[in-house]
Amino acid sequence: MTGTLVLAGTPIGDVADAPPRLAAELGAAEVIAAEDTRRLRRLTQALGVHTTGKVVSYFEGNESARTPELVEALVGGARVLLVTDAGMPSVSDPGYRLVAAAVERGVPVTAVPGPSAVLTALAVSGLPVDRFCFEGFLPRKAGERLGRLREVAEERRTLVYFEAPHRLDDTLAAMAEVFGTDRRAAVCRELTKTYEEVKRGPLGELAAWAAEGVKGEITIVVEGAAERGPEELDAAELVRRVRVREEAGERRKEAISAVAAETGLPKRVVFDAVVAAKNAAFNG
């Protein structure tokens, strides 16, 4: 008889947001795997919960090594509770490896739904939320960050990112460069906490604001790309779209074909725009 892996969402700020089931699961778990055992201790104290299970650390640095140990406990019949510092485990937090390993061994996996910075930021952003995609953290290196942004430059769904406060200004500047300074966005800071702030505006304005320095936990919500008809696409825009695809790894021929398909224009029109831009650069 195998045990059960329970992924438990924890408050992203206000401890009063903790779901009632969280306290019950903390008290009943035979093993509690926590991203930070000190934060777990503060959480249980705030909730008035006495834990009797074994508490082990489970964070990025030991995730690979500790996963087999936790899986063996699960296979042996233990109820293992996984909690991270805030939000839902495995969503840009430790947990994915353990879930995948548990599923592979036939162990039941369930969850205690809880607060989510992704959904909370979407809800308060004022941007379309009917379709969205979560992109997690962008790469730290400038070139890799630009490359990742260029991959979704034409994505029409709303985009959600996590970011560290000391990189926020560089990230917003890169977004303004790739998506355009007028693309709407919202920077959600310290959600559900005392100094919660949601700063909304065009990416260009937000980048200038962030340059002064911003503190706290950050979630960025960015409006998706607008769908434009062929009549709105000038040669420069066609060239830009081809360049974005080339920088993402596509060959030029493939990039031209893809841009033609997505815009409804003949491939010859896109090809001529690319050639003209190349000649202009060469002659200039």
Q: β content, as a range?
A: 15-25%
Determine the mean pLDDT.
93
Tell me the number of helical segments per DSSP (H or I, 4 or more residues long): 11
In terms of structural class, how would the helical and strand content be classed?
alpha/beta
Q: N-to-C terminal Cα separation, in Å?
A: 74 Å
Q: Which blocks of ≥5 consecutive residues have pLDDT under 50?
A: none
- Helix share of residues? 40-55%
Q: What letter string, H or E per element, gives the SSE order?
A: EHEHEHEHEHEHEHEEHEHHH
What's the shape? elongated
| CA-based gyration radius | 23 Å
Largest sheet entry: 5 strands, parallel
Q: How many beta-strand elements?
A: 10
Taking strands numbered 1, 2, ... along the chain, how are they ordered across the largest sheet? Answer: 3-2-4-1-5
Describe this structure in words.
- The protein has 284 residues and is an alpha/beta fold.
- Helix content is 43%, strand content 18%.
- It contains 11 helices and 10 strands.
- Strands 3-2-4-1-5 form a 5-stranded parallel beta sheet, with helices on both faces. The chain has a 5-stranded mixed beta sheet with strand order 6-7-10-8-9, with helices on both faces.
- It is elongated.
- The chain starts with a strand and ends with a helix.
- The model has no long low-confidence stretch (mean pLDDT 93).
- It is found in: Cytoplasm.
